[in-house]
Amino acid sequence: MSAQKGLNLTLKVWRQKNDKENGQMETYQVSDISTDSSFLEMMDILNEQLIAEGKDPVAFDHDCREGICGSCSMYINGEAHGPGREITTCQLHMREFEDGQTIYIEPWRAKAFPVIKDLVVDRSAFDRVMAAGGFVSVNTSGNTQDANSIPIPKADADKAFDAATCIGCGACVASCKNASAMLFVSAKVSQFALLPQGQVEAAERVQNMVKVMDEEGFGNCSNTGACEVECPKGISLENIARMNREYLSASVSSQDS
Amino acid sequence: MTTLNSKIPKGPIADKWTNHKNNIKLVNPANKRSIDVIVVGTGLAGGSAAATLAELGYNVKAFCYQDSPRRAHSIAAQGGINAAKNYQGDGDSTYRLFYDTVKGGDYRSREANVHRLAEVSTNIIDQCVAQGVPFARDYGGLLDNRSFGGVQVSRTFYAKGQTGQQLLLGCYSAMSRQIGKGKIKMYNRHEMMDVVVVDGKARGIIARNLVNGEIERHSAHAVVIASGGYGNVFFLSTNAMGSNVSAGWKVHKKGAYFANPCYTQIHPTCIPQHGDQQSKLTLMSESLRNDGRIWVPAKKEDAEAVRAGKLKPTDIKEEDRDYYLERRYPSFGNLVPRDVASRAAKERCDEGFGVGTNETGEAVYLDFSAAITRYGQEQANIQGLHDASAQKIQELGTDIIEKKYGNLFQMYEKITADNPYKTPMKIYPAVHYTMGGVWVDYDLMTTIPGCYAIGEANFSDHGANRLGASALMQGLADGYFVLPYTIGDYLADDIRTGPISTDLPEFDKAENSVKKSIDFFINNNGTKSVDHFHKRLGKVMWNKVGMARNEKGLKEAIAEIKEIREEFWKEVRVPGTADSMNPELEKAGRVADFLELGELFARDALEREESCGGHFREEHRTEEGEAVRDDENFTHVSAWEYKGEPSDAVLHKEALNYENIELKTRSYK
């Protein structure tokens, strides 16, 4: 492991009491931050400091702290999850920063993700898009056919897996100038579009998911690709193309229904 | 007093589950519509249970503290899920999975439960594939398998190093379907604060809305606890930051026995701790042990030079390396079970051969160079490159390793800034999974009628040690295939009950006590943060109740935990208010529970005068340092009854009867 150094940093953090009140940036100093610490560990240290001073600690979402649960969501120096490709905030380490640096920390900004407090936003719109069709309608109480009776070409299974690795963090929405959720929705649509399971409801799925996505207030996709650049799991824009194809074909084939 | 009746069905082991299913009461579909079930926790166990109960027709209310059920910590499981499919034709069977699990658990699990788990394991794979879970496939389009520790067959199904994620998303999608239909009412960002017991039966919960702080009453005909494990009692563990024992502990305080709290799995392959600012440890999947070789320098002076930064691992010659697992356990080698591998690593580090940078030298190497060369040579042969250079072989081999474990290697590099393709990974054991939990009978019901516990929250299937890739199996088995059947037997008596009122005095009482505790935290104005106490508790737990325990240390731990607890109630400071989002307030309640559980944990470890699985008492070991079990006196489950202070808890014993598998000394040599 790299040699440990202590960093002194100035933090500009978005503080907002709740969804009704206006927020503002506050300035804090932290010192002797180990370069081996993660960004969230640095936030823990800031919070311990604030508690000791009798102040309200900064609320932020986090849980697994190993880059898979998709909870941690912050804009760091103008980038979703901060500098570095294909990482979440919990995987961002302080060795990426320099002594004396000023760091700006803000919540995701999107109409469909209202701020709950400080850096915490409400991403339940994603759950509602999922409930509109992000599943295969199979009875979960057993009696399904043997798993190997559905052979799937390895290349398709691998592509479906790549799409399925989306962690639903919302960095795609936060990075998009239109706050579009196309990358998130297309990842789920792609997973099922590439697999034989659930094909029978493919048309209905894509139409319902897109409909709810629009109703939730996410914007449109204008193919600038910021979502792909900031996606911690490297979900590809190819999925958006696949979803558009699925949507078009569903619209054509369901004209008479 | 409740009697400890495991309700194991009679008859031959292979027929118990089938016979039981044929004989338990059913609830007809029309009546299910008038029955409500609460599920607390929406990981693999709770999520699959909620989806299936809703599918069957019950009205489900599901609760999770995260902002979405998709974030439960089951998502972080990496390696895979076992199932006795025998697709590989390497001799696997239900019996072998049953046998390996009972032996792997050091003969401290319940035979009937484990056999059922092995039986339903094959259904899980079918179910998940039908849901569109993208498991790894071979080139013929069929499912692929790999091996895990403690096992000599390939029965582990996987989705790269993200199996837990894919299984959880599968179960979240099944839940989403029921949420869309309105059959599951989902309460995100809600925490269960207490269980409500009416006329001796679990009839609801008190929950706190974590966004606005409102205290809510929710009633139901049955309550299912699926809140995971309590490894965070150690502060540093591989558990998610929010993972807590509170739901299990609250039902324990209301009458559910808590079983085997001292059984905690220490996972051998985690990234070592880097310093005092660390909040959590990160696991490296056990699947890496399929190809990684574990070693330390054979000479102390080399280990010292490595620790001082004067030697690199690659400088140490092959003959100067001690592949201690292969040396000590030739038939299982690097794939010995987790408890064995963890203790062996600790033993080498304690002897001064560790390669960590911290003062204790706590790390060993997990080395892929041999595998890279082996795969590279194989690829060179396949491609007809008979004179391939060493560098070309390295490239080809690295490519194969990247395909198998790429995301894990990337994760390691992000955390440590070391490239594991070029230099061996450093690993050390860490707290991972708790095999103890709320005591349940064969139907997964606790000692409170109508209160169930499933997945990691219960105790029954893993014994004193859990084999890899079996937690996901148990979570989904309980949720998809066991509870949905067994709960009907209880609910059949409730078809005429009608809705349960939340105006009952029991709800008033529970709500008042929750409010009182919250008021205390907000108004205490102490001097120390919640984390301050949690870290102190964690240090005591790791040093004295961790990988090795002895009588003296455990007695000290019990006294120290008590002191920390007393100080906590005097000195804890919780900023902010109760009527808004307040993560410190959430933590305070959870740490209060850990401070009680920790003491019971140590007491349970003190009581168990033997070494078994994840519980290693230094007084009970062979000269070579292997665990010595005492079957005569300890072939039982220790189930604790709450009586106030942890020191007043009363021990009940459930005898474990091994009728199908002979109790033998566990050997992996």
Automatic annotation (TrEMBL), chain A:
Cofactor(s) in the UniProt record: [2Fe-2S] cluster; [3Fe-4S] cluster; [4Fe-4S] cluster
Domain 4Fe-4S ferredoxin-type: 157-187
Domain of life: Bacteria
Keyword RNA-binding among record annotations: no
Protein name: Fumarate reductase
Pfam families recorded: Fer2_3, Fer4_8
UniProt keyword terms in alphabetical order: 2Fe-2S, 4Fe-4S, Iron, Iron-sulfur, Metal-binding, Oxidoreductase
InterPro entries referenced in this protein's UniProt entry, alphabetically: 2Fe-2S_ferredoxin-like_sf (IPR036010), 2Fe2S_fd_BS (IPR006058), 4Fe4S_Fe-S-bd (IPR017896), Beta-grasp_dom_sf (IPR012675), Helical_ferredxn (IPR009051), SDH/FRD_Iron-Sulfur (IPR050573), Succ_DH/fum_Rdtase_Fe-S (IPR004489), Succ_DH/fum_Rdtase_N (IPR025192)
Biological source species: Roseivirga misakiensis
Classification lineage: Bacteria, Pseudomonadati, Bacteroidota, Cytophagia, Cytophagales
Entry similarity comment: Belongs to the succinate dehydrogenase/fumarate reductase iron-sulfur protein family.
A biological process from GO: respiratory electron transport chain
GO molecular function (one): metal ion binding
Iron recorded as keyword: yes
TrEMBL record, chain B:
Lipid bilayer topology: Peripheral membrane protein
Record-level Gene Ontology MF annotations: electron transfer activity; flavin adenine dinucleotide binding; succinate dehydrogenase (quinone) activity
One GO term of the biological process aspect: anaerobic respiration
First and last residue of the signal peptide: none
Residue ranges of domain Fumarate reductase/succinate dehydrogenase flavoprotein-like C-terminal in the record: 534-668
UniProt keyword annotations, A-Z: Cell membrane, Electron transport, FAD, Flavoprotein, Membrane, Oxidoreductase, Transport
Pfam family, any one: FAD_binding_2
Cofactor(s) needed for function: FAD
Main location: membrane
Leading EC class: oxidoreductase
Family of the protein in this entry: Belongs to the FAD-dependent oxidoreductase 2 family. FRD/SDH subfamily.
Name of protein: succinate dehydrogenase
Organism, scientific name: Roseivirga misakiensis
Species classification: Bacteria, Pseudomonadati, Bacteroidota, Cytophagia, Cytophagales
